[in-house]
Design goal:
Rossmann fold; alpha/beta; 2 domains; about 260 residues
């Protein structure tokens, strides 16, 4: 699940690693963006989406959204102790371990940057490096609207990373699952000497590690749900990960019932 289509970057990696396992994807596009919303509201959205996915046969949950993981992960694991729940945290650790310049960048959203999870990650892994954090909700919108190829889009991308480049960052963590869909455009700006860290492969590996033995490969089709416009999700499936599939609208409650 994700607030929108960013989680498709994680789903793509899960499909590569576990192609024989069918998946259910929920894009909460009716409540996009999550970044500016209070943590308690995001938790309520996430709880209802997880309930929906479990009712539709999910045997484990991947929260493919940094902003949703921060307030929800520990709560959901306590609510569903028998269900493996994989979350996502900013890739500060690999960035800090790999930097040669001592400066790393983190592209993120307001909800992630203000959350206790991000502060915990910084305290654990970034004590000996300088961290340049840039809050970029406009890049989420860019992916959802596919405007990265426009002159305005390129200008917004450059503005996001320019302070990091000027400070000497050689590692940039993409701390929003929407941002891996901007890798080509970002790499053209930052050059070959800067590494962009996509969290998707690490999340897919963790998913494979905790996959319940009761879940077996089967030929059931993947399913795609959205709280927004199914036609838009279908278009984005095609544009972002090359999948031709029908999407269904699912209106989960905005409050716990």
């Amino acid at each position: 699940m994700d607030s929108g289509v960013g989680g498709l970057s994680v789903l793509r990696e899960i499909h590569r690693l576990l192609p024989a396992y069918p998946t259910l994807y929920f894009a909460d596009q009716g409540h996009l963006p999550y970044g500016p919303r209070p943590a308690q509201e995001i938790l309520l959205f996430t709880e209802n989406i997880v309930r929906f996915l479990l009712q539709h046969g999910a045997g484990m949950i991947v929260i493919a959204c940094h902003t949703a993981s921060a307030p929800s992960l520990h709560v959901l694991r306590a609510q569903y102790p028998r269900i493996p729940i994989v979350g996502i945290e900013p890739a500060v650790k690999p960035a800090a371990e790999a930097t040669q310049s001592g400066v790393i960048g983190v592209l993120t959203t307001q909800g992630t940057a203000n959350g206790t999870l991000y502060q915990s990650v910084l305290e654990r892994f970034a004590k000996n490096v300088r961290v340049m954090t840039y809050i970029a909700p406009e890049l989420v919108t860019m992916v959802e609207e596919q405007t990265q190829h426009t002159a305005q889009g390129r200008a917004l991308l450059r503005r996001a990373v320019q302070p990091m480049l000027e400070a000497g960052a050689d590692q940039i963590a993409l701390a929003c699952t929407h941002f891996p869909f901007l890798v080509d455009e970002l790499q053209a700006i930052v050059g070959p000497g800067v590494r962009l860290i996509d969290p998707g492969p690490a999340v897919a590996r963790q998913t494979a590690r905790v996959l319940p033995a009761a879940l077996r490969p089967n030929p059931a089709p993947n399913a795609y749900y959205t709280s927004g416009d199914p036609q838009k999700l279908q278009h984005m499936l095609r544009a972002l990960i090359g999948v031709e599939a029908q999407a269904q609208q699912a209106l989960v409650p905005s409050r716990l019932s």
